[in-house]
Amino acid sequence: MKFHNKLIYWYLQNKRTLPWRQTKNPYFIWLSEIMLQQTRVTQGLGYYLKFTEAFPTVFNLAKANESTVLKMWQGLGYYSRARNLHYTAKYIANELNGKFPSTFLEIIKLKGIGDYTASAIASICFNEPTAVVDGNVYRVLSRYFGISTPINSTTGIKEFKAIAQSLIDKSQPGTYNQAIMDFGALHCKPQNPLCDSCPFANSCVAFEKNLVKELPVKKKKIKVRKRYFNFLVIQTNDYKTILYEREGKGIWQGLYQFPLIESEKIIDKKELIANKKFTDLFPDETTISLHNKKQIVHKLSHQHLYTQFWIVETASLKNATISWKNIQEFPVPVLISNFLEDFPLKN
């Protein structure tokens, strides 16, 4: 039996029931694929349902302001995905009259859409035989064929794409692509794969040669950068505070945060007060206390943020214009969202 026939047979017996599988509308498929990048299905499902309820069409998403989109995305991380999603929704609504492009080559030109997402949309919605390659697919193919080429190398990316393309069922490419992704997620799992009941056990190189735990191969990660954040959580007598919108191309673009002093190491209260940014912001008397007695380590893909939240109480402050009772309306990074859940808000 051919690889794709055996895979699809497994899929029809074991596939997950998911809302985006009840449609071939490219808007919903696109939304689900963007959300599920670097996000588990169990986590992404709630966000998908929330988004489709708030934005049932691409026109609804296009009309929303970016801050609203980011607020609804809060907790999913990788916020550039949300900004690109919103940008592309506006492009499709305003430039293409709401009609989604129908070929891989057209879809991949859209902002925020790469090879994997374009392949998924083209195959599922428009029956184009373009193979998806994501983490699940890398794992299945590397184990089945015993490939040790690093999956995050230029050579590996090309090699696995070519193999995936050669295996796709051209008569039902969308079903095949969903099948191999589900097989990797549910059966050929990263840890404790179900090899004993695997339909490919008698032809899997990794299983035969006891290489399951060694494959796939990934080149060592980029060195993680350590950063030291000191957030100034301002409380005035009239229950006001300050939030700034992060700008530029760094982390959390478009999200809001408390005034930030970034230092070269963990600092104490004395060092904080001596910082010029602090004295510029607070010319008058303040009361300062450290909220978290132990530094919070927030881990991003290439950065670890060692964070302290300083509570700064002052009678009044010119720039403090945001009422504490409205603070939940602002889209903030998970790091600050977690702090706000733990902090007794003034109102």
From TrEMBL:
Listed cofactors = [4Fe-4S] cluster
Residue limits of the HhH-GPD domain?
35-186
Superkingdom: Bacteria
EC code: 3.2.2.31
Looking up PROSITE patterns in the UniProt record yields:
ENDONUCLEASE_III_1 (PS00764)
- Top EC group: hydrolase
Cite the cofactor comment. Binds 1 [4Fe-4S] cluster.
Q: Which UniProt keywords apply?
A: 4Fe-4S, DNA damage, DNA repair, Glycosidase, Hydrolase, Iron, Iron-sulfur, Metal-binding
- InterPro entries listed in its UniProt record: A/G_AdeGlyc_MutY (IPR005760), DNA_glycosylase (IPR011257), Endonuclease3_FeS-loop_motif (IPR003651), Endouclease-III_FeS-bd_BS (IPR004035), HhH-GPD_domain (IPR003265), HhH_base_excis_C (IPR023170), MIG/MutY (IPR044298), MutY_C (IPR029119)
Task: Give coiled-coil spans as residue ranges.
Answer: none
Q: Which family does it belong to?
A: Belongs to the Nth/MutY family.
| Name of this chain's protein | Adenine DNA glycosylase
Which function does this protein serve?
Adenine glycosylase active on G-A mispairs. MutY also corrects error-prone DNA synthesis past GO lesions which are due to the oxidatively damaged form of guanine: 7,8-dihydro-8-oxoguanine (8-oxo-dGTP).
Q: Tell me which SMART domains the record gives.
A: ENDO3c (SM00478), FES (SM00525)
The reaction(s) catalysed by this protein are: Hydrolyzes free adenine bases from 7,8-dihydro-8-oxoguanine:adenine mismatched double-stranded DNA, leaving an apurinic site
